[in-house]
Here is the input.
Amino acid sequence: MFKILLICALAALVAANENAEVKELINDVNPDGFKTVLSLSDGTASQAVGDVHGNIDGVFEWVSPEGVHVRVAYKADENGYQPTSDLLPVGPPIPEAILKSLAWIQAHPSKE
Here is the structure.
């Protein structure tokens, strides 16, 4: 299922960049996984490598209309989709009182 979404996302990247030329396009599918690479002349790019177990490592990047280079790396595995980017929002730090409570709970496990 994820492979279909990835291919659709690549097609959407190409369609959104009608004036960009394809510099590189690789779609290798093997019995033990796949590798896909798309690079456009406007700086838009996508790469992904997947294995037979459904684990995928990838990255996609583009230049926003404001001229900001956007890069998102991701891993998709048994723990779900895990994107990383300097532009993704980050939650607030865990309050000290909560950290102390968690430490106390760990030090005093339930007897049940």
Q: What stands out?
A: The first strand starts at residue 22 and ends at 30. The mean pLDDT is 87.
